[in-house]
Inverse folding.
């Protein structure tokens, strides 16, 4: 049971004071771990990452029913909320986010000698071993910061098909990576 | 609806769909379980986004923000 909502009734003079306290408790519980994860996707931009964590925890506070979810689910939800905020921010900040096309996975050169490079090799290998249809939707959505609708238009297939292929592709990728010890 | 969990965890649904899926999540045990199972995938894929490339002709996967 998540302790975030416990034992608060009647201790606060105002709703504001109680809200402030609850957000402080959320920070204590999740702030540090969230910041570590978010920094990876903000390119180590600490200020941006701190803003994302704050917005994530405020949204969590507004969805108090979800705070009662079991810890692993609550954590998964918080990470997903934070990721969405980062992606939205990146899309807003970038006037033309897709002007520079990233290389295809096959073209990527990976430097030697670091853990990151090793993980990248393992992930790239796993991605390559998916079917073309599955790999294509992962590349055209997440890896290029595109929504399902945008990718559907580019690929010339219905959005429902993109979602479905993404689902099976992601599940297959998870199976491939599960026991390889890639840092998550 | 259930297969949207992958798009949801990757953050690539449109705003309306994203919110609709969150409401679905409140009611669907199966999707909540899959969300937990898939939650590490995006960061694993980020390894590809942030990998620098060896040549100047090949821009890195990471976008300028």
């Amino acid at each position: 049971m998540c302790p975030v909502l416990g034992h608060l009734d009647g201790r606060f003079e105002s709703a504001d004071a109680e809200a402030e306290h609850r957000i402080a408790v959320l920070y204590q519980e999740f702030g540090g771990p969230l910041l570590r994860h978010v920094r990876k996707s903000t390119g180590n931009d600490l200020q941006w990452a701190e803003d994302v964590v704050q917005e994530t925890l405020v949204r969590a506070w507004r969805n108090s029913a979800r705070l009662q979810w079991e810890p692993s689910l609550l954590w998964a939800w918080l990470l997903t909320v934070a990721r969405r905020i980062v992606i939205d921010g990146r899309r807003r900040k970038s006037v033309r986010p897709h002007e520079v096309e990233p290389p295809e996975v096959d073209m990527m050169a990976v430097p030697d000698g670091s853990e990151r490079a090793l993980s990248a090799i393992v992930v790239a290998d796993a991605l390559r071993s998916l079917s073309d249809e599955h790999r294509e939707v992962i590349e055209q959505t997440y890896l290029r910061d595109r929504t399902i609708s945008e990718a559907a238009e580019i690929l010339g297939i219905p959005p429902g098909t993109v979602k479905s292929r993404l689902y099976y592709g992601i599940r297959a990728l998870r199976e491939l990576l599960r026991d390889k010890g890639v840092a998550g | 609806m259930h297969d949207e969990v992958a798009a949801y965890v990757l953050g690539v649904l449109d705003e309306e769909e994203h919110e609709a899926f969150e409401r679905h999540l409140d009611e669907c045990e199966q999707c909540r379980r899959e969300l937990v199972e898939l939650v590490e995938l995006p960061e694993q894929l980020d390894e590809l986004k942030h990998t620098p490339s060896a040549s100047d002709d090949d821009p890195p996967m990471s976008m300028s923000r």
Q: What stands out?
A: Chain A has two domains: 3-93, 105-177. Confidence is low (pLDDT under 50) at residues 95-101 of chain A.
